[in-house]
Amino acid sequence: MTETALSIGDFVRDRAGAMQPPVAAIVLGSGLGGLAQELEEHARIDYGEIPGLAPPTVAGHEGRIIMGLLAGRPVLAFAGRFHMYEGYPPAMPGLLVRVAHALGARLLLLSNAAGGIRRSLSPGDLMVITDHVNLSFRNPLVGPLVAGDRRFPDMSQPYDEELQRRLHDAAARAKVKLERGVYGCLLGPTYETRAEVRMLERLGIDAVGMSTVPEVIVAAALGMRCAAVSCITNKAAGIAPEPIAHEHVLAVTARAAHDFERLVTEFVGRLDV
After folding, report:
1. What's the CATH number where 89 sits?
2. Predicted local distance difference test score (pLDDT) of residue 273
3. Which residue stretches of the chain have pLDDT < 50?
4. Catalytic residue numbers?
5. What is the pLDDT of residue 237?
């Protein structure tokens, strides 16, 4: 994956031309790609045009790399990600993180759509992830040691506490409600059963989804600082009476997108160049 990430980085540099090193790389989850429209664009490349990448197969993931300015700061945005449930090996979701690192990003901001397990969370809430539980039982670092990686990265604090504080400060300035909680990653692509949700609740998990954790693990191996925000799209199975549908997930993220965009713009605007 290192060789692939480096070759993708070279391809992007060739297409984009001269650009400043990004202060942050941002991965935009299901339905949250609208932030890309807020960038003063320098370059935009579809995944399908890049050797080593392919268009995402999931609705709500456009599949583009966008380089440009957000709040006057250079950023690298990935509109769409890869999931293991699409049939990719565990290392594939982390490939975009390796590309960001190859392009000079040392700070990673992730976003996702998640089901709310904690009873106080409501659809449309934004939640800073404070920790996670990897219940996909997959790890993107399994295999030969990748050059530049730590063999045994410490995962006691995968989400940078200072960045969490900065996100809460940004939320206060932007007047955006921001929760905090523990994220649980399951393999998918099925939504959880009621019994599984009861189990997750007893494990102390506040919200559940099918992404993000492989990217965080790769970021830890590379020594990147990391923060993540979940958009709570629904009450989890057994907490809400109605069935869960992906169309509903996208509808809620569309409603929450404005708050998410204000939060991230305010957060990035205070980062050092």
Report:
1. 3.40.50.1580
2. 54
3. none
4. 30, 61, 83, 85-86, 113, 210-211, 234, 246
5. 82
pTM exceeds 0.90: yes
pLDDT at residue 244, rounded to an integer: 77
- With H, G, I as helix, E, B as strand and everything else as coil, classify residue 201: helix
Q: What is the model's pLDDT at position 60? A: 66
Domain with 128, as residue range(s), is 2-269
The total of structural domains in the chain comes to 1
pLDDT given at position 37: 82
User: CA-CA distance, 6 to 55, in Å (whole number)?
Assistant: 19
Assign residue 237 a region: left if phi > 0, alpha if psi is -120 to 50, beta otherwise? beta
